Each structure stands twice: as C-alpha cells, then as structure tokens.
Amino acid sequence: MTGASAGIGAEFARQLAERGYGVTLTARRKDRLEELARELSESNGIEADTVACDLSNAAARRRMIQTVEKRGRSVEILINNAGFGTAGRFQELDPENEIRMLRTNVEAVVDLCGHYVPEMVERRRGGILNVASTAAFQPIPRQTTYAATKAFVLSFSEGLHKDLGGTGVTVTALCPGPTKTEFAEVAGIDEGLLELPGIVYSAEQMARAGLGALDRGRRTSVPGPTNLAGAVAGRVSPRAVVLEVLDRFYPVGK
Ligand SMILES: NC(=O)c1ccc[n+]([C@@H]2O[C@H](COP(=O)([O-])OP(=O)(O)OC[C@H]3O[C@@H](n4cnc5c(N)ncnc54)[C@H](OP(=O)(O)O)[C@@H]3O)[C@@H](O)[C@H]2O)c1
C-alpha cells in the first residue's frame, strides 16, 4: 500500500486491517506510518509493517521491494495510491517538481506492477488497485502534468486489465473526484473547494468505494454521480470545448 501516511491511503489501510488483512504501509513520513501501524495492529490484531520510501526514487523503490521480500511478505493486494499534484500555469511551476510528480504518479506505478504482477500471475491470484483521478479523462490547464499523469495511470490500468484476463489477477483503476485529504494543501489549491456538499467525498468513503470496486474486479471505478457525469463529459466532449471551459471555470491555480 503506497501513500499510507495520509488521506485515502491511510483509509485503505484501516479498512483492509478491519477485514483482517496484514498490511505493509509505505510513504516518506515514517513517523506517521509507524503510528498508523501501531493503531491498526492494536485494534485489529493484524501484522502491520512499515517501509519508509520516496517512491520518486528508483533506488529507494528497489530497497523497499527488497525489505518486503526479506520480511517474507508476499503481496496479495497492491494498492498504488501515492501521488500528488500541483496547480498553476506549467511555465510558472518548478520543472523539477513536475518531474518528481511524473516519477511518483507514473514511474512508481509501472515499476511496482512490473515487480509484483508476474508473481501474482504465477500464483494465479491477486488484486491491484491503481489510484487515478477524474483528472484522467481530459487535459486540465493549470494542472497540466497532473492530469497527464492520471491519464497514464487510467490508460495503463485499463490495458493491463485486459492483459491479465483469465490469469486470476485483477486490476482496477479508481478515479476519485474531489476528496477531503491533504492533497489540496500539497498542491497549493484553495481548500474551500473541498467544502462543496454532495460532491466532495471523505477519504473513508473514497477508500470504501475503491475496495468495493477491487473486490468486484472492476476495470474502472468513478465513485459518485457528479464525478461520473464529469468523467463522461471530459471523455466525449471535443477537446477544444473542454479546454476552453476548464481554462475559464476550473477554479484551480488561478
Ligand atoms: N484528494 C483528491 O481530491 C484526489 C482526487 C483524485 C485523485 N486523488 C489521488 O488520490 C491519491 C491519494 O491522494 P490523497 O488525496 O489521499 O492525498 P494526500 O492526503 O496528500 O496523500 C498522499 C499520499 O501520497 C504519499 N506520497 C506523495 N509523494 C510521495 C513520494 N514521493 N513517495 C512516497 N509517497 C508519497 C504521501 O506520503 P508522504 O508525504 O509521507 O510521502 C501521502 O501518504 C493520489 O494518487 C491522488 O492523486 C486525490
């Protein structure tokens, strides 16, 4: 489980622990991971491991994989949830941070699937949940790199879903819309946007929807009718229209 130190990831971990699953929690903030691991093992009697890892770093990812192996853990469910966004005109953002985003949101997902999928196929069981976003369904000015990373995650997961047909291994792309987590603060987005009633999910609700979709082996899940309508509109509308509407009205990075 990546990105378990906050938000939707911490909720995935809580809900899996409540089901009795052992969990391995990873993210950069070790203190938070350890606190959550203690909470989960005390309240659910499960084994909760932690591995601090900067997923944007390929060498750190190798060390994380080796640590999990040395502990004798086999990964039955892989949740690629870690990710972050930025907000603003591309030319005004830190290019190094945009690359870091690409490595975290995209490269790490392919790398961890590349490592764990063959083992799952050999065992003929396993589940992968890749967290994309409703941002995946169209380009978004002022979140240009972020939307492109999530379009990759969605496309990659949908293709992989077919590649894995008949193997006993499933892959699901979860596409959250606005969800109350630390995401907005990290991206520098006005948190007032996360007060919209009926549209914004809690991390707990989003994680529950994601695990439900994983249980059913769904290819893609866009929880919430407003999010689903937005995703469909983003996918089928002419690009020129989508870009113009988002550029004028999408309230991020103004
Ligand atoms: N919240 C939303 O509105 C929303 C909407 C659509 C999609 N999503 C997606 O949902 C996923 C979870 O985000 P969230 O909303 O729960 O945000 P969050 O509360 O900010 O949590 C993000 C998690 O990712 C981890 N992370 C970030 N960079 C990392 C790195 N380089 N290495 C390892 N871990 C890293 C963070 O841990 P550390 O900082 O401790 O490393 C944290 O645990 C993300 O992929 C995000 O793009 C969120």
Short description:
With 254 residues, the chain is an alpha/beta fold.
Question: Can you describe what's shown?
Answer:
The protein has 254 residues and is an alpha/beta fold. It has a domain at 73-249: Rossmann fold (3-Layer(aba) Sandwich), CATH 3.40.50.720. It contains 9 helices and 8 strands. The strands form 3 sheets. The protein has a 4-stranded parallel sheet with strand order 3-4-5-8, with helices on both faces. It has a two-stranded parallel ribbon with strand order 1-2. Strand 1, helix 2 (30-44) and strand 2 form a beta-alpha-beta unit. The radius of gyration is 18 Å and the shape is globular. The protein starts with 6 loop residues before the first helix and ends in a 5-residue tail after the last helix. The mean pLDDT is 96. It binds NADP nicotinamide-adenine-dinucleotide phosphate. Residues 2-9, 27-29, 53-56, 81-85, 104, 131, 133, 176, 178-179, 181-183, 186, 203 line the site of NADP nicotinamide-adenine-dinucleotide phosphate (NAP).
